[in-house]
Design goal:
This protein is mostly helical and 417 residues long. The chain has one domain: Proton glutamate symport protein, CATH 1.10.3860. Helices cover 80% and strands 0% of the residues. The longest helix has 40 residues. The chain is globular, with a radius of gyration of 22 Å. Bound molecules: aspartic acid (ASP).
């Protein structure tokens, strides 16, 4: 008998865990449900520990390999800065879409159960103070301590700086560092893939724990949360990005989407931008007619650092968790921190399934939420991962179309060579 695909396994795990938890909740009586809920939480916690275990090395090698992959980027300066600008603008637009969606729908304030009531935990310093703290984090006084803690903002900043200066050093140094980064990344990807196979079991226990102790109410809140993510993603993919393609690339967004559909569907079912990359390049070049020198530059970099869907999802998820946790919306200063850190988290996420979930630690940490509070959204992550990965790939493809148009006819190539 063929084993069902991973996302089906996860769905089954989720359902089974939910049913088990509900059974304990209904028939177990207070003490028994609490006891077993705690045990399930511990078992599911093992899966969360594995995710935490790979987080730091995965981020470091993925980011370094992406930046170092630029190779002799000197003569690609202009394309590089345009590409980065495109990544930055679209990711910020995606995050803002998420913020607006959460503000309108308020998915975590719909009467569902609170995880913890600790209303004093938010507030504190003003925007300036809070942002300055993040800037300080970008300059780790002791990088080793940042890796051990781990402080993800510091880790990302240091890794980018390290890779950029390795490129500057050039020659043998750059080559060796790149080989090391690529090799490490390959191993970390393999390890993460292996851990993700355990997701059905992890999800089973975590959902069972949640439903055993909190009842089915939680799914009411989760459905509002899922709807918020879905609506915001749909808006970004169907309104914002097509408008950019129409205005800057002067293409029909619909026809471009049709050309990209094999890659978009593969992204959806694999939940991996990296896995989809060869197909994305093929569609961009052969079905949409974008030049190879643009596609081969914009797409691999995009698969690593440009993740609009992930950025949007991170922002919505953390704001949702905060609403559940504190029982009210985060103050504006903290929402600004969420924007900034969601951007960095999306840049730091590897293009593999559930990477965004791992990276969310950055944002949770920045707004003072415990890492464990993430458990509540884990159950529905896979399906949201599929959706956000398609948006990630779609944004990379739109970026290639935009940069290709901005490069103009083949003149820059003659200049460059
Ligand atoms: N799965 C996503 C991707 O590969 C990353 C994420 O988890 O958000 O693009």
């Amino acid at each position: 008998m063929r084993t069902p695909a991973l996302h089906w396994q996860i769905a089954i795990g989720m359902l089974a865990g939910g049913l088990l938890g509900v059974a304990f909740n209904f028939w177990g009586g207070d003490g028994v449900a609490e006891l077993w809920g705690g045990r399930f939480q511990q078992l599911g916690g093992l899966f969360l520990r594995m995710l935490k275990m790979v987080a730091v090395p995965l981020v470091v090698t993925s980011l370094a390999s992406g930046v170092l992959g630029l190779g002799g980027a000197a003569h690609l300066g202009r394309m590089f800065s345009r590409t980065l600008l495109y990544y930055l603008v679209t990711s910020m637009l995606a995050i803002l879409t998420g913020l607006v969606a959460v503000a309108l729908i308020r998915p975590g304030l719909g009467g569902g159960p609170r995880q913890v009531v600790a209303a004093d935990g938010v507030g504190g310093g003003g925007l300036g103070e809070v942002l300055f703290e993040q800037i300080e984090n970008l300059i780790p006084a002791n990088p080793l301590a940042a890796f051990i803690e781990p402080n993800f903002l510091s880790i990302i900043a240091f890794t980018i700086a390290f890779s950029v200066f390795a490129l500057h050093a050039g020659g043998d140094v750059a080559r060796r560092v790149r080989t090391a980064a690529d090799t490490g990344f390959a191993v970390m990807m393999a390890m993460t893939h292996a851990i993700i196979r355990l997701a059905p079991l992890g999800v089973f226990f975590l959902v069972a724990a949640t439903t055993a102790t909190q009842g089915t109410d939680v799914f009411v809140s989760l459905s509002a949360y899922m709807l918020t993510v879905a609506i915001a993603l749909a808006f970004h993919a169907c309104v914002t990005l097509p408008a950019i393609v129409r205005m800057l690339a002067r293409r029909s967004p619909w026809r471009f989407a049709q050309a990209m559909s094999p890659a978009l569907l593969t992204a959806f079912s694999s939940a991996s931008s990296n896995g989809t990359l060869p197909l994305t390049m093929e569609c961009v070049e052969h079905r949409a007619g974008i030049r190879n020198r643009v596609g081969s530059f914009v797409l691999p970099l995009g698969a690593t650092v440009n993740m609009d869907g992930t950025a949007l999802y991170e922002a919505v998820a953390v704001l949702f968790i905060a609403q559940m946790h504190f029982g009210r919306e985060l103050p504006l200063a903290q929402q600004a921190v969420v924007c900034l850190t969601a951007l960095l988290a999306s840049v730091g996420s590897a293009g593999i399934p559930h990477a965004g979930l791992v990276m969310m630690a950055i944002i949770l940490q920045a707004v003072g939420l415990p890492a464990e509070s993430q458990g509540i959204i884990l159950a529905v992550d896979r399906v949201l991962d599929m959706a956000r990965t398609s948006v990630n790939v779609w944004s990379d493809a739109c970026g290639a179309a935009v940069i290709d148009a901005l490069e103009g006819p083949d003149a820059p190539e003659a200049e460059a060579t």
